[in-house]
Amino acid sequence: MKLPRCSGPENVIGVSRRRLLQRAGMGFGAVALSDMLSRDPMAFGVEGGAGGMLQRTHFPAKAKRVIYLFQSGGPSHLDTFDYKPLLNEKHGEQLPDSVRQGQRLTGMSGNQTSLPLAGSPFEWKQHGQCGAWVSSILPHTAKIVDDLCIVRSLHTEAINHDPAITFFQTGSQISGRPSIGSWLNYGLGTDNENLPAFVVLITKDKGGQPLYARLWGSGFLPSRYQGIRFRADENAVLYLKNPDGVDRGSRRLMLDRLRELHEIQRDATGDAEIDTRISQYEMAYRMQSSVPEATDLSNEPESVKKLYGPDVEKPGSFAYNCLMARRLAERGVKFVQLYHQGWDQHGGLKGGISRQCQETDQPSAALVQDLKQRGMLDDTLVVWGGEFGRTNYSQGKLNGDQFGRDHHPRCFSMWFAGGGSKPGTTIGETDEYGYNIVSDPVHVFDFQATLLFLLGIDHERLTFRFQGRRFRLTDVHGKLVKGMLA
Question: Residue 282 sits in which domain range?
Answer without folding.
Answer: 239-294
